[in-house]
Amino acid sequence: MIPEKVVARIAARAAKEAVASHSDTSAALAELAAPRASAAVDSGTARLGLTLDLPYPTDLADASRQVQRYVSERVAHLTGMRITEVTLAIEHLVPAVGMEHRRVQ
Question: Which has fewest Cβ within 10 Å: 29, 70, 93, 103?
């Protein structure tokens, strides 16, 4: 059996990959905190929890679905486990470079 800590690290790395593929610029990625992950492993299955930042502006629902799908598939592929759940907590929305000082007019 793969330890929970290892599965969590794989999930965090997969989340970073997913956010990078969804972001338009590398400058926005540089401002994002590294995703954090937890895993609960039980007899060949895993439940994953992710805490991450997302670039702003973004479609939160679409970005969340893409991250969940990618992380689930990637962790399943790398570990051979069945992923039963991937929960997300979006901690911060990080404005794209140059947007932090803009105001709505």
Answer: 103
pLDDT, tens digit, 9 for 90 and up, residues 40-87:
999 999 999 999 999 888 889 999 999 999 999 999 999 999 999 999
Share of the chain above pLDDT 70, in %: 84
Residue 93 phi, psi dihedral angles, 5° rounding: -105, 120
Helix or strand (DSSP H, E) at 9: helix 4-22
For 70, the enclosing helix (H) or strand (E) is helix 60-79
Residue 41: count of CB within 10 angstroms of its CB: 19
Helix (H) or strand (E) holding 87: strand 82-95
* Preceding amide of 57 cis, omega within 30: yes
Distance CA 66, CA 22 (A): 8
Q: Calculate the alpha carbon distances from 74 to 30, 44, 58, 81, 100 in Å.
A: 23, 15, 23, 10, 33
